[in-house]
């Protein structure tokens, strides 16, 4: 039996079950939602079983309460196959009046949520699950805790990952199915995921047929613009450059909505701090995939290709770091943003917690000059923040791909290899 890898989502799920009647786990296909849910559930019904799907759908229409029977927490896997289960769960939670009753999992947002479907507010809480972080896949030592950094504790760690190691981890991605495999098989998983998205998933989500070739061009454009605030019009023009047919804005938005619904892309919103000066802040989202391996798969690249193009590897590495920061920040009840203003001053990741604490993070693949550049940029931004109107940052950090140590510089900026970090 394959080893169960502990997930940070395990802790988040337990906390949610203790405070709500039902938990909906959403996230990309293959990221481990069902495995995690089964690990904690006491009973399970799998809506996507080929021999029973039609019967389950009929039962959901006739008497959905039959699908809710079982020891709690009761897992309903791929619930969106019969969307009216949502109302049945909401009603049953009200009826039972207790927490920790149901876990719902889904790899897509249902296409049709009619007016009869209640929001579920107060009964059903949503949680996002992503592919594995490096700490979850045991590729990070976890010697530096993001929580400890927020608490002001001293950091110290060593790391021996090479640029080739980082390139492999980017291309392998955080897919559970890629772990404990040969390098060839591990690297194949992201390509299989990509093929599934362009040939099937993007159309299946709402039963609207979408052209696989256009989807490929769109995902390639997203990959070329990874970790930038590229305008959607720029991406659209990139897609239609060799397209005889029209690909208007509404068509583009339709494709992007579908990729969002199946959790393939996950852009980073802009952070708006209180500044001492009246600097205009750019509010465009930064383009990211839910996992960096999707970008390299869409371009047909491998680890050696990244090592031979370190400038592009740095952008893809940023996507890996943002993925991990999102996973770790979820456990701290926070969100990840980016910052950029009209002067060009930027911050790759702002980890902002619900209690108002936040940390500023620059992401650099490695090298003393790049680390110095990142540290100076962080200090410059920190000095622009009006601390009379908001808290000062809890920390400034340069998050690296290749660095021998985690340490605190004389200027107060932390230097942390991504393969030392955990929640």
* Terminal-residue CA separation: 28 Å
Strand fraction equals 15-25%
Mean pLDDT, all residues? 93
Assign an overall shape.
globular
Tally of separate domains: 2
**What is the strand arrangement across the widest sheet?**
7-12-13-11-10-9-8
For the largest beta-sheet, the strand count, sense and barrel status come to: 7 strands, mixed
Low-confidence stretches: none
**Rg result:** 22 Å
Number of helices: 14
Description:
There is one protein chain. The protein is α/β, with parallel strands linked by helices. The chain folds into two domains: 8-129, Rossmann fold, CATH 3.40.50; 144-422, no CATH class. The protein has helices at 8-17, 33-40, 53-62, 85-96, 146-150, 163-172, 183-204, 212-224, 232-240, 249-261, 292-298, 303-307, 310-331, 368-384, and strands spanning 22-27, 43-46, 74-77, 102-106, 124-129, 144-145, 157-158, 334-340, 346-353, 358-366, 395-402, 405-408, 414-417, 421-422. It has a seven-stranded mixed sheet with strand order 7-12-13-11-10-9-8, with helices on both faces. Strand 10 (358-366), helix 14 and strand 11 form a beta-alpha-beta unit. Helix 8 crosses helix 9.
Which descriptors apply to this entry?
39% helix; alpha/beta; five-stranded parallel sheet; single chain; 423 residues; Rossmann fold
